[in-house]
Amino acid sequence: MVDSSQGTQLYRLRTQLLSKGRSDYVLAKTDTMSVRIKCYAQGGENVLHAHSGEDHTFVVLAGEARFYGEHGEIGKLSRNEGILLPEGAFYRFQSCGDEPLILMRVGAIKVDVTTQRLGLEGESIPGTSKANKHEDGVPIDGLFYE
Fold it and tell me: What is the pTM (predicted TM-score) of this model?
């Protein structure tokens, strides 16, 4: 975990590539913002969900991702393309390229609001849950995105 009490933080967009599953690492964090790097060997965030109290964006660094909303496909994103998801926007995504999907995720938390990851019925859906089809990442020895 990142110590956000230090103020200014430097970080590097680097993560180990995976043969299966996914990883998610916080690179920098304050009380109202976080920067993460995520790797998906296959799959993605597979259940439609929204975040309360947080706007966030994804930028594809490597691979390709297909994003879906409440009414179907939003679009396919490739390297250096991104999507902004305002608080309460329902989405899911899937890796759809021939290489691992690497995403940078930046989230802006709204002050004095409890943030949660919610399903269509308002139920809490943790990102590492079976409901979200989570599979722990299996690193490929010596291979990194950087």
Answer: 0.89
